[in-house]
Amino acid sequence: MKCILASHGRMSEGLLDTVQMLLGPQTDIEAHVLLPEEEPARLKERLEAAIDPEDEGNIVFFTDLYFGSPFNQVVELSRTHDIYHVTGVNVPALVEAFVARSAGKTAREVSEAAVLGAKDSVKDVRKLMASVPEEEKEGEEF
C-alpha cells in the first residue's frame, strides 16, 4: 500500500522525517510540498503523477489542513481515482497509520487508524497536570 503526504510548505517532509526517526525507514511513501510561489494545480500534477494504476483502491493521501489547497487538490483527484484521504494529519496519526500498514491492514483500515491516532493526540498539559494530585506529581515524569 502506498502513502502520500501533501502539505503547505515543507510540513509533509518534516512529518515523514519524524515518523521515520520513530519507526525506522519506510517504503512506498512520498512527501509533496506546496511552496508559496506555486499554483495549487502544480501540486495536483505531482500528486497525480505519483498514482500508478496498480495503486487504485490501495493508496492513502494525508493532507495537513481541512479545506486547504493540498486538501482541495486531493479531493479533485478523488473524483477520478479510487483513493483514501485523511486530513489534519499529525505525527500520532502517521505513526498509527504506518504501524497498521506494516501489519498488513487495508487502505481503509490504515485511514481509520490514522484518524483514531490523531483523535486524542492534542492535550492541554496545564489542565492534565492540574488534575493529578500533588503527591503523584513528585518524582513523576509526564
TrEMBL record:
Residues 1-122 form the PTS EIIA type-4 domain. The keyword Magnesium does not apply. Its main location: cytoplasm. Keywords: Cytoplasm, Kinase, Phosphotransferase system, Sugar transport, Transferase, Transport. It is found in: Cytoplasm. PANTHER family: PTS PERMEASE-RELATED-RELATED, PTS SYSTEM MANNOSE-SPECIFIC EIIAB COMPONENT-RELATED. This is PTS sugar transporter subunit IIA. It comes from Collinsella ureilytica. The lineage of its organism: Bacteria, Bacillati, Actinomycetota, Coriobacteriia, Coriobacteriales.
